[in-house]
Fold this protein.
Amino acid sequence: MRLGLAGLLTRAFISSPLTPLLLLASFALGLIALVALPREEEPQISVPMVDVRVETNGLKAEDAVKLVTEPLETIIKSIDGVEHVYSQTHDDSVMVTARFLVGTSSDAAILRVHEKIRANMDRIPVGIPEPLIVGRGIDDVAIVVVTLSPTTEAASRWTANGLTRLARELQVEVAKLPDIGLTYIVGQQPEEIRIEPDPEKLSLYGITLQQLAGKIEGANRSFQVGRVRQANEQRTLVAGQTLQHLTEIGNLLLTARDGRPVYVRDVADVVLATDPNETRVSEYRKTKDGLERVPAVSLAIAKRPGTNAVVIADKIIERLEQVRGSIFPADVEMSITRNYG
């Protein structure tokens, strides 16, 4: 029987002493590739998306569609590589999203959108501020998410605001690791100084909201006024200072009424409150009395493009274990709620 090409190759490999060597070399190359090549659950397929956000203060959604949204859609659709264009129009705001073809570089996509919009700003009505351009990609997806929550015994002593402070310290530590990308906190509730004016007291002293806001804004400033050279040293002169405490804000002098000074505390309450956030994180635990909800905050950690998600995730978890007893106390639990390495 006459053998074909496949048969000849098979017979040659069966009788050749090089066949075991080729098998061992293939096995070794496979092991090297397994160790060296990046691995992760979500492959690095580049499908960049670019958000264009515009503040349209004073415009209703119906007017913003004609004046801002449609011109922006026309401009973005003309960009090379754009596959789809989406838009959302609300009162006082517009967002147009451009999705590029698979394989397009994220940096190139952002640059194209930026250059095209800057070159066609004359199509946007006068008075509309310059759009904010934000790039989105697969590298913005977190590979590790760690959630902080108090223990059951300490649940009454902790709030989302306190957990936010701990998460920020943890965020700084994790950012020191190599190849760490974007990190952000989900469910954070930072503190803010809130000034709550009393309309009756404002009317009593003849002070408007604009006067109150202008006084506080003007007092919360510091700026350089010059430099002084003395004894071979150069020192910077700074005028003013930023407000640091609630009492400093309350003691700001607004005006005088019938020979009596009027302070901010006379017309408004100055309080330390938490900034309300649309996104909140909670943890539900099963107890003997039913389900118990405790506050929680999550720290999401992404990686840089082209890096090994498995190695980075292991380093992140290792670093989190190292700081478990130093950054946050023992009555706060740390759990890994997402690991895409």
In short: Residues 141-190+277-339 form a domain with the Alpha-Beta Plaits fold (CATH 3.30.70.1320). The longest helix spans residues 19-36.
